[in-house]
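Here is a complete protein record:
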Amino acid sequence: MKKMIPPVGYEDLKEIIEKGLYYVDKSLMIRELLDSAGKVTLLTRPRRFGKTLNLSMIRRFFEDERNIHGERIDNRQVFKNLAISRCRESYQKHQQQYPVISLSLKSAKQKKFEDAYAMLKKQISEEFRRHSYVLDGNRISKEEKDSYWRIMERTCGNEEYLDALHFLCKCLNNWHGKKAIILIDEYDVPLENAYMEGFYEEMVAFLRSIFESALKTNNFLEFAVITGCLRISRESIFTGLNNLEIHSVLSHRYDSCFGFTEDEVKAMLHSCGLSEKYPELKAWYDGYCFGSREIYNPWSIVNYVKNAEADSRAFPRPYWSNTSSNDIIRQMIENADEETRSEIERLMEGDTVEKPIHEEITYDEIHSSRDNLWNFLFFTGYLKSCGQRQDDSGLYLQMAIPNNEVRGIYRQSILKWFEHKVADLDRGVLIKALENGDCETAGKFLSEQLMDTISYFDYAENYYHGFLAGLLKGAGNYQVQSDRESGSGRPDLLLKEKKFMGKAMVLEVKIAQRFDEMEAKCEEALTQIKENHYAEPLLADGYRPVLSYGICFFKKGCIVKKGEAITRV
């Protein structure tokens, strides 16, 4: 029977399996985790690449889960048909053997430290409540029960929260007779939010204290797995944690555990009868490289397949983005010097840039250097690795934009930046030059703006058309009309003065492949305006006179030529 692709938002493996939904089997990650025997493992991947679902899988496999009465909840059926169930007994013997503390920090996105702190305390207290069965009986002391109640009911002092995970490990160890596993999801979300909202140091201090207590000096810890987007430097929150094993997108271990491989994508499409969609899906959502694996964006794949199941004519579109990361792209574009603008243009054209890689970073250092920004974009999924080299100064990566979806995010960021830039620009110079037939001034103005702008279409006609329309929109007392049907063709741009019997202008855009073609291309544009009678509908509407301009672009230069002014049909 065909299994339904789960709607976006399913983050619990048990729910997916029990509802018979389609699941891309990542259970061999459990074997890899046991083989590595790491005490504390940090796994970094971009947002929405399956980290939460994988931690759910780890929890369901290892946890000796109990209800509030201390009765065991059997989760073995969840793994009955998964790959881990076919592994040898040395792996199977770990199933349902440990108490597990599972904590998600992704909800700590408040604007004030006090509110974010309160959210984290709420998450901790809810995990205490989930394990409240330990309060029954006499396996923990009265004093420990009192402390447990205070944390669970959120009536304790702040200092008790700093040691809360260590304390919960101790209580669980006393009750189960087994050391606890700690799972922390999206550990860096509170840090990213705190950086954006201005209380970074306070949040760093809080998380550092919790992690040091729970992960460094904890004799009741079996192992811990932490997920996040960035590898925050040890000096920031992992101070003194010498047992930390880190695996980023550059690591070969766990390289196929997050995101979908090509075979997994093809199998999903086949199961849905959508195999013919593979080429366009690959162009839009492929392109990541984790370790040595080619990886697809799982969030976008699932969204796309769900839409294509409902409508076979559905087009690919962008589903994946992170608002704060998009803001950092915009800030980089706004503050870009000439070299950075050139590098962004090369990326938009499908080329690569080479940058030194720094795996350890802190959010408050992102803007301290241009290299840190490039590193942030790489580790958050907005750039991919195309190759690497090592020299005496360190590791260098060849980076590129991974796919059409992410390229669209850059394009939108560039367009928003351009809109803000244009809003602050005195465009009256351009309008006045066009009204007066001053082609030299108009061409100079357009060339100057091009030099200060980031292209995103490889100097194609669409790019120049959008550039010119963006400059003219809202400038002066003119209505700008783009690509209107007129006569036997389509003029590129029309400008119509907002008054009865006002002026109008027809602008036809051409691009040259060589500098010495520019004059001829302008003349070609003017001939096209005349032969296709682009002015006639304007004259019929009462506009007098109708001015015509041929405009030619070559890379970041522009020439403007004026045709005859037309006053009658």
